[in-house]
Write a structure and sequence with these properties.
With 430 residues, the protein is mainly α. It is built from 22 helices and no strands. Helix 4 (62-75) packs parallel to helix 14 (242-260), helix 13 (211-236) packs antiparallel against helix 14 and helix 18 runs antiparallel to helix 19. The chain is globular and about 70 Å long. The two termini are 39 Å apart.
Length: 430
């Protein structure tokens, strides 16, 4: 195997340099790839060819549809109804509003698929509500941003589609099913942490549990939750492809938001679509530029070299699994979620499979690691959104979030070393 060390240094070195100086990530990927191509004497037409090839995928068409669905449902008055449903479920507990926040994120995450959307939408309602009831503002913000990561694991998640496409040969339906239990465990650990703080700080309880109220709120929220059922059942049951289910979900969410919940008028729909186009342009440019970056990584045998280097350090599968998580966590501190999935998956997935980690299980590990990264400085976008929504300084939010990092790391360890958490539900339907 011929190793072109200088080309690898140019590709990875310039990319890291651009990231450090906070260059837009999509352009950092593109420029480092162009410089590497020029050094190797390859035609620049390769850039266009690989970028077109990267986005010429029927499966990837699901990504813009799912993002559009999330924006429409998130702006259509869904948040308040899901909060009311969560309150009927767990609001009676000590620290009930914190529990409601966490459970609401589980429900809303299945609609938005975005931690940022979850934080912005639910946080703007839940944080002031919690503060009014006597909760500390930094605690309220910390609960909001950490629970928002549930939305990355609860389907339909466009990041799961990106991982499935990047990994190759991974069933999107199986990946969707794999996210439910890890997300539930994450919610459970966050609720335990919140309960401990609530008892210590004497945060209030909510109203007593009422089965009648629960059934009432469930009937009101049914139309929102049905969108998740349509997508998951359709994909897992083989009724639709992920792309077809995403397109149907967009039409359905538009109908529910405009005609049933009436949270959107047609003027609001155009505004939402404008926001979608902005987000989609970023995501699709990133996927396209990451394709040429991935092409060069493969051409330069970087995945093989990285695998040999990591495996050369130890042959202990437990240590290797911990090292994979550490690498992903470090990347999460300096990069956003999509580029980590697109760039790191081809390098780290072969190592994971070599130590017995199933590709679906590894996908959940990647997404959960990236979710933690969204809450860590200096690039943690959800951390900054939460700070802005809660009107709390970054320093106070980070300090209040430290105990919840422990809850999230505990969930990550469980997902890493207990494969059945991720693989149990997919195995039932295969």
């Amino acid at each position: 195997m011929i190793v072109n060390s200088m080309a690898i240094f140019i590709l990875l070195g310039t990319f890291l340099f651009f990231v450090i100086i906070r260059f837009p990530i999509a352009y950092a990927v593109a420029l480092s790839s162009v410089l590497c191509l020029l050094y190797q004497g390859l035609p620049l037409s390769t850039v266009a060819q690989q970028m077109v090839k990267g986005i010429s995928s029927f499966s990837l068409m699901a990504v813009p549809f799912f993002i559009t669905m999330g924006y429409i449902m998130g702006s259509g008055g869904i948040s308040e109804k899901l909060i009311a449903l969560a309150n009927a479920c767990v609001g009676w507990m000590r620290g009930g509003m914190a529990m409601v926040n966490i459970v609401s994120s589980y429900f809303f995450g299945g609609i938005s698929g975005s931690a940022a959307a979850d934080t912005a939408s639910l946080g703007s309602i839940m944080i002031p509500m919690m503060v009014d009831q006597g909760y500390d503002d930094d605690f309220s913000t910390a609960v909001t941003i950490t629970s928002s990561c549930e939305g990355l694991l609860v389907p339909p998640s466009h990041n799961m589609v990106i991982y499935a496409t990047t990994a190759g040969g991974i069933s999107v339906g199986s990946l969707f099913l794999a996210g439910y239990l890890p997300a539930a465990i994450l919610a459970g650990t966050l609720m335990i942490g919140s309960y401990i703080f609530s008892v210590k700080r004497q945060y209030p309880k909510g109203d007593k549990f009422s089965i009648i109220n629960l059934l009432k709120q469930l009937s009101i929220s049914f139309w929102a939750l049905a969108a998740i059922i349509i997508v998951v059942v359709g994909v897992v049951g083989g009724i639709f492809t992920p792309t077809e289910s995403a397109a149907i979900a967009v039409v359905y969410s538009l109908f529910v938001s405009v005609f049933i919940y009436k949270g959107l008028n047609w003027k609001g729909v155009w505004k939402v679509l404008d926001q979608c186009v902005h987000t989609l342009s970023i995501v699709l440019i990133l996927i396209a530029t990451s394709s040429i970056f991935g092409f060069l990584l493969t051409r330069l045998n970087v995945p093989t070299l990285a695998a040999n280097a990591i495996l050369g350090l130890t042959d202990n599968p437990i240590l290797l699994a911990l090292m994979l998580n550490l690498i992903l966590l470090i990347l999460g501190c300096i990069m956003d979620m999509a580029p980590i999935i697109l760039i790191a998956t081809p390098i780290l997935l072969p190592i994971a499979t070599s130590i017995g980690i199933h590709p679906i299980q590894f996908g959940i590990m990647v997404i959960l690691n990236c979710g933690i990264g969204l809450l860590t400085p200096p690039v943690g976008s959800v951390l900054f959104i939460g700070s802005a929504v809660g009107k709390v300084s970054i320093e106070r939010v980070v300090k209040a979030t430290l105990p919840f990092y422990i809850c999230m790391i505990a969930t990550l360890i469980l997902v890493t070393f207990i494969p059945s958490i991720s693989l149990f539900l997919p195995s039932l339907f295969n």
